[in-house]
């Protein structure tokens, strides 16, 4: 299954600086944004796909960005991690990845997304 709605909370922090997690170059800015994400109806083992595609589809400015990290603001007791190699959002409960087919669609996760 795929994630539900992905929305950016309208506030953007932009800063130049050293490359973050293998960014393109030291002069490229990185962006820090609060996003909300509705969980999967049936969580797939290995993580949820589609966050990067939904994020890039928001508008032209986002279409050129790559997600480099995701941090939790409010995840209702779940842990959240970003697998940048496979472009998957992973959810954890009690230190272990959420089991396959877990319904997370009733949870709207509030995340801090860093992109470049």
Keywords:
4-stranded antiparallel beta sheet; mainly beta; 116 residues; 3-stranded antiparallel beta sheet; 2 helices
Plain-language structure description:
With about 120 residues, this protein is mainly β. It has one domain (about 5-115). The protein has two helices and seven strands. It has helices at about 50-55, 60-65; strands at about 5-15, 30-40, 65-75, 80-85, 90-95, 95, 110-115. The chain has a four-stranded antiparallel β-sheet with strand order 1-2-7-3. The chain has a three-stranded antiparallel β-sheet with strand order 4-5-6, with no helix packed on it. A hairpin with a 4-residue loop joins strand 4 (about 80-85) and strand 5 (about 90-95). The longest helix is centred in the middle third of the chain and has 6 residues, at about 50-55. The protein is globular and about 40 Å long. The two termini are about 25 Å apart.
Quick description:
The chain has 116 residues and is mainly beta. It is 9% helix and 41% strand. It has one domain (6-115).
């Amino acid at each position: 299954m795929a994630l539900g709605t992905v929305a950016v909370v309208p506030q953007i922090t932009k800063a130049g600086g050293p490359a973050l997690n293998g960014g393109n170059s030291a002069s490229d800015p990185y962006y820090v944004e609060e996003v909300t994400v509705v969980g999967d109806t049936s969580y797939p083992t290995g993580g949820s796909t589609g966050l990067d595609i939904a994020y890039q589809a928001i508008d032209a400015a986002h279409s050129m960005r790559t997600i480099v990290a995701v941090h939790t603001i409010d995840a209702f007791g779940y842990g959240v991690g970003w697998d940048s190699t496979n472009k998957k959002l992973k959810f954890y409960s009690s230190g272990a990845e959420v089991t396959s087919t877990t319904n997370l669609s009733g949870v709207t996760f509030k995340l801090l997304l860093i992109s470049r």
